[in-house]
């Protein structure tokens, strides 16, 4: 084998190795670009999930605040109802006292009136 043939074989091997190296480099670059796209896609999805989670958290806080307000309103209504029950009880008591007072006045008037027979009403004394 001659020297020139040997040189061409070595050059051919070097070219083939260089082509293989370029193909491998391009393949890695493409794979890395794909990986980066996947990472970016994951980042976007994570950002969307975080945004939805924040919206959900805000909604939960809003519902919680509404529930607290409803509870406070219910407690206020209970206090108002208790106040009204006491007021009604006082008025009922006042009405009963007035009724008894009226009956006592009527009884006294009947006792003083000579035309009224109080014995029949009192059970025949």
UniProtKB/TrEMBL annotation:
According to the UniProt entry, which residue ranges have a biased composition of type Basic and acidic residues?
A: 33-66, 73-125
- Look up the domain of life of the source: Bacteria
Q: Which residues cross the membrane?
A: 6-27
Key words, A-Z:
Membrane, Transmembrane, Transmembrane helix
Question: What ranges does the record give for the region Disordered, renumbered to this chain?
Answer: 32-125
Protein name, per record: Uncharacterized protein
Which organism does this sequence originate in? Arthrobacter crusticola
